[in-house]
Amino acid sequence: MKLIKYLLMSFVLLIADDISISNISDAFKNGKTKTLIRYGMQNRDSNYHILQDAPTDTSSNKVQSYSALGGYIGYETAPLYNISFGTTIYTSNPLGSNPSNEKGLGGLSEINGKQESYTTIGEAFIKFKTDKNLLKIGRQEIADYRFISLSDVRMIPFTYEGAIYENSYLDGLKVNLAYLTSKKARNAIDFEGMVRSARVSTGCGEVNSLGECLNRGKKGLIRGEYDSSNYNSNGNYIGENKNMPLIGVIYNKENFQVEAWDYYINDFFNTIYLYGNYKFNFVNNLKFLVAGQYGYQENVGKSVVGSIDTGFYGVKLEANLDNKISMFTAYNKVDYNEASYDGGSIFVGFGTPQLFNSFQVQDGNLAGTESIGAGVQFDLGALNIIDSTIIRFRYASYDLPDDLYMKDAGQDRKESTFDLRYSFKKKSGFGIFTELNGLSIQFRVAFNDFKTDYNFEKYKLLHGYNVFSVRDDFIDARLRIDYKF
């Protein structure tokens, strides 16, 4: 009740801000544009493996790749009585050879089984903004809502449709409220409901009226009771759209920060996410940060995916030397529960996975995964070695449950990544994914080494299907050249 009174009081104070634009003509005349031209290329040399963005029709491919030119152009009016309107058009277009048999990385449209151009209106909103309040309704980018984020690692980011309200009236406290109706994936034209956005699937294709897999040679992901009529013959969700109300509370005080988030989708799940960090100095120019995270997901209502009962936690230690060299080490653990969807895997399909050790493959959310990671980043400009250059090295080991009797077993793997970012405009003081004006280049190469000394036939004989989906190592290289106006 106190929170409701506090939010209502904030709305009353909205009219206190100064008004600088007096008519509609001035609002359009003084509006702002944003433009990004992006070249993106990615090449992955591997056998098929389960990824959050890989389709199921590339099982025989060893190479996936795309080369594209795109970006966005957007316009937002100047605020009139604190109200503005905005829209952004996003596009991605093939540049060079993009064979259809190398699709699957999400850089181009794959709706027709090929790698093709697409253009979409990703943003179209009305915004009310003051110093302490923000209300935004329509299609929009949402950058920092933890499980909801841009995940801008291909040609264009995720965007969402709905309404958000942010309030920072009290010093150090920020409250985020949202009601989201749909999400547009990176390489999609259309928005889709929040259940489909979670990439929900039976895992085994068509099921009968009892929800049992007709193809006994594939693993079913859904556990417990559910309405099988919500799924088509391919095992994909075709039921009604579900919306996501969410709330996030963030408190900052000097060197201390805590966050609490709750994401709810009716007849699907409720997700609770907690995060906190504490900063301290060891010596004058050596700063440390200790962070912890905890997440829990459970099914609610008449769950369209049966039973969900899983969670994860993590701890992280960072060190920063005079903003020139930064290091980290982190630990994550995901629950293993065969009575939960996919053995307890965490649903992360709405944005960038939040686990500390989510690097290149971003499957550290799989059931039972225990991961240890470390990394170091050098600001070569600040170190007076090479101006305008940031490099980063990361390494992590992912230990998955792999005992013979486990039906949700997975292969252990080790991952190494190298990132480089170069800015033609800024000498130092930026990160790998910092949004930069002007021309910048980003390059990454990642190597994943999967454990393969399993007796795969024994697993298949015991469970009746191929337990493992990953069979090989892979090298992934990507190049991104941005020019932001």
UniProtKB/TrEMBL annotation:
List GO molecular-function terms, semicolon-separated: porin activity
Q: Which GO terms describe its cellular component?
A: membrane
In terms of Pfam families, this protein maps to: OprD
Q: Which InterPro entries match?
A: OM_porin_bac (IPR005318), Porin_dom_sf (IPR023614)
Going by the UniProt record, its keywords in alphabetical order are:
Signal, Transport
UniProt name for this protein: Outer membrane porin
